[in-house]
Design goal:
By secondary structure, this protein is α+β, with helices and mostly antiparallel strands. About 40% of the residues lie in helices and about 10% in strands. Strands 1-2-3 form a 3-stranded mixed β-sheet. The protein starts with 8 loop residues before the first helix and ends in a 24-residue tail after the last strand.
């Protein structure tokens, strides 16, 4: 797969910014009416010239750049202990998020079974608190035997046999 058809996150962000601003500085777009869309010249003390909070500006920028989903996912992962509770969080570890599925490794089969039982409630809370995250499914994994499989790709065959002796 070529790099052009599968850009990295930084390249995708650059291409998104380039598409939004069409190669012009944000100030020039605002003066010409491209960013605001109202077509009026900016005048001192005019409408839209009030100072804004930094958080508000960052939220607008994230929305314009298409980062809302990634930021909501990162916030959920960072706030996982507060989200599931201080008693449950030490028994879980988030392995990853792929194609709308959040995969969580539990440290015992009992914890995995209990969290699977609560899957519907946890998913409903995720959808209520982090609607932009795009998480549609939860997978709770119990600890198992060690695996030689690392990563999404495998080679067919019998695998390791008499490795230790």
């Amino acid at each position: 797969m070529s790099r052009r058809s599968d850009p990295s996150f930084a390249a995708a962000a650059y291409l998104r910014a380039k598409a939004i601003w069409r190669g012009q500085s944000p100030r020039r777009l605002r003066v010409r009416g491209g960013a605001e869309g109202d077509g009026e010249q900016s005048v001192p003390f005019g409408k839209g010239r009030e100072p804004r909070l930094l958080g508000e500006l960052l939220a607008i920028s994230a929305r314009d750049m298409g980062w809302s989903s990634e930021l909501a996912q990162a916030r959920l992962i960072a706030e996982w202990p507060r989200f599931v509770g201080e008693a449950t969080a030490p028994h879980t570890q988030i392995l990853g998020l792929r194609d709308g599925t959040l995969t969580v490794q539990c440290d015992s089969t009992a914890w995995a079974t209990e969290l699977r039982r609560l899957r519907g409630e946890i998913l409903t809370r995720i959808l209520d608190d982090y609607p932009e995250s795009g998480i549609r499914e939860l997978r709770f994994l119990a600890p198992g035997a060690p695996s030689w499989r690392h990563g999404p790709r495998t080679v067919p065959g019998r695998g390791p046999r008499d490795t230790y002796g």
